[in-house]
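Deviations from the work plan: none for this task. Representative record:
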Amino acid sequence: MSYSLREAVNRVLSFFRSEQLDREVNEEMASHLEMAVEENLRRGLSAEEARRQALVRFGGVQQALEQHRESRTLPWVDVLRQDLRFGLRMLRRDLEFTVVAVLILAIGIGANIAVFSVVNTILLRPLPFRDAQQLVRIVEKDAQGGESGKTYTADATQDFQQQNRSFQSVSGYFAFTGPNNFKLSGNGQPTPATGMLVAQGFFETLAVEPALGRMFRPGEFVHHAQPAALLSYPYWKRQFSGDRSIIGRTVDLSDKVDLNNGSVTVVGVLPETFDFGAVFSLGAKVDLFVPYIMDDFREDGNDLALVARLKPGVSMGQAQSETDLLFPQFYAVHKHPEYGRPYTGQLTGLKEYVSGKLRRSLIVLWCAVGLILLIVCVNLSNLLLARASARGKEFAMRRALGAGRSRLVRQLLTESLVLATVGAVLGLGLAYVLLSYLAHQGSISLPLLAMVRVDGMVLEWTLLIAIGAAVLFGLAPGLRMSTGNLQEVLKDGGPGLSDSREHDRMRSTLVITEMAVACVLLVGAGLLLRSFLRVLDIDLGFEPSHAAAISVDYDDGGNAAKRAAIWQEVTSRSLMIPGVESAGISDNLPMSRNRSWGIAAKGEQKGDALNNLPVFVYIVSPGYLKAMGMRLIEGRDVSWDDISNNRAVVVINQTVARKVWPGQNPIGRTVVAGGADAEVIGVIADVRETGAEDNPGAQMYLPATKQFGPEGSYLVVRSKLPPATLAMSVMRTLRDINPGQSMTEFQPVQTLVDHATSPRRFFVLLVGTFACLGLLLAALGIYGVISYSVTRQTQEIGIRMALGATPWWVQFDVIWKTLQLALIGIAVGIIASLGLARLIASLLFQTAPSDPLTFAGMMALLGMVALLAGYVPARKASKIDPMIALRTN
Amino acid sequence: MGQSKLDLLQGTLDVMVLQTLEVLGPLHGYGIARRIEQVSGDHVLLNQGTIYASLVRLQQRGWIAAKWGTSENNRKAKFYSITKLGQKQLVKDTAHWQRLVGVMGRVLAMHGEGGER
């Protein structure tokens, strides 16, 4: 029987070269006919007769071709072709249904593809590095004090690099880089640039290869080395128009903090796929990289964020035990053993570190779109069922003529598949647009979002859900339609009584399901929305509205007195700009980069935890607190006097006051802040430092004196005028003072807050959109069912009205039926929501998972929408003219 | 019903084609069709076109091979020839048909007697 196997293989193969085979056999047949004609001519027939007889003997070229095709290919392919052709014809005939179905599907599938792409990028796909599972992040256990608690000193890093046995390499980057910390001069106006300092071996640890040029050399990480820089791909494209000859050239690049003016050699360009901000520092757009020279930072405290690559075969557990052993032995600074050995080390897989916190939110989002797809399928099932009733006769006829049941189900499935395929293609387009939009949203601080795209995995997923959807919504009506009593359907005249009860029950069940699912979605979205409103309502401790900030460039030559003079000039001249109410300078802004030092009460024993409380530090000018809208509770702000007299004073926040001196007045006491003594002169209300939802930590504000040098400086201006109006005059003032001031953006402080709340906004927006979509679809579903039943009962309603039922009564009847369905759906939905809401409890903010207001609100909303959906057909029912209804069948 | 009749016809045609190629060597489609008509003495009036379905089927089973060539009067045509496998199959089919013919003959003869009685 080996020939049948060979035949099967050949049949499959010939399916793929159908065109060629057709061409060959056509050629063959043509030559066949000509030979026949020739022979007939030889036999003495006329040319015309010769041709005619040849054709007669051949017996139909088209049939021969059909036979040829039939015997060479797979039989089911032909059936499929038939089904497709027929299905397409049916769908074209019922264009309205087709368009609605395809649109609903496109939305459902599109939303699923988009969310899957996000989930795939953030959760499923490995980070875009070779053997990314070997990469880990090392931070302090139980990290406190913002970034400072997640970083290490140069000495501790070097000790770990030398002593560990578990890692191929350990490296890191400088965690306190603010945006626009560099200034590129040269052609035209100086432009700001964001530069990241990376320790030796950083790119090697990540296994990133340069796109052009080379990586840093070890010699470039030592004191007084020739400065070198690597450019990020987008920056190279944007700033240097992708000029390849930039490699090896020097550019005029200066660091705004240390003001090392000078020429820096561009040694390489990083690959396009490497996006530092997307992985390590959310929302940061890093333009270039420069070496972190350890010798320059020995005594600067914790500033390196560590990234390491495990040796092959070393487990996370083994590496963790070694880390636990080593870190407590390291001194923060070798030269100052008195600073102590404060370290622990917690290993977390880099992927987990980057996206672990989002896991739950994303899964919720994923479930939400899954529910949307479910509603879509249920809706389509309903639409198909309605069509099934209309096509009942057609199918009964086909069965009577001998079509098997499986053949009919297959026909219906093919139609569903065609719908789903068209829907999926449209949905893919929709998702593509949505994703390209999302990927370019710098304002949403989600990791890896910039890397979201449609890839092979996404396409597979699309295929999967399209087929799944087709089967799901095609099967129920298919099975229903192919059963049932033939004769009754054929006999019955109108869209009749035969399909009534059972169909009705099925359609009602579908609608109830839809309502219940929509209810779950709405409650979830409602809870998240309420949480979001709570977050927006939080007292941040400062007033982001009406304030804007700009990074200020100046050159003080490292002289504190000169800096004080410049700061004073900048603030006082800013205050002269019309419309400006207050102005001040700080080296850090809330909800952006942060750093912490220690604070302790001098000469008082407070117990271990309070001996050196981690505290966020801000080096400020007088007026900054006012410009930010922070509230002074007690005492006074720092003054220009404090600065010019180098007076060591500090303003603390309520958290510090409460922790260090509970119930006592802190004003006038002395603290050790960042290693120096300072007198407490004021207490301000707590400011939400790291984000709107995190509890405020300890904070202190120090005047920019000799002891406390700032790291960069931001001028904050408070004004009723919109920032765009002010921007010009502020820039003119700054340029007046320092012609080298770079063109940086004058940024509303609100954008910092928006950035911090953007992940929550993102989720609320998406889940909310899905919930509205679900509501709309459920409303459509309920409308469809009620409207259909009114149409079918036209006669019955006519009789009732003829017997004296008032239009009002008919209307009420229809609405009551709608409400019954809706109420059952809502009841089921509420019960399900009560269970499911607990699962998203950790995503809620100051909102109980069983928040009665949300539940009541959503119930009311669903009820109203259902009522509206029922009202339209109810009106139609009450307008039925008994005479017409009874006369027509 | 119609299906099985067609099957029988197809099967018959396949054996005829194999036998023709076995005896006459490589031939093109027209040649095979004409030869079958001649041999059968115009008892079989086949639509010549159906031969091509049979040819592609035999080819896919590996019983015949095909090659483009030129006919006696310089026309481009596909020439078919029987393969080793095809020869084996022909032996089997011939035996099968002879048995079938024998059986059919006896059965029909019996039917004839029965009808007279």
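Chain B has one domain: 2-116.
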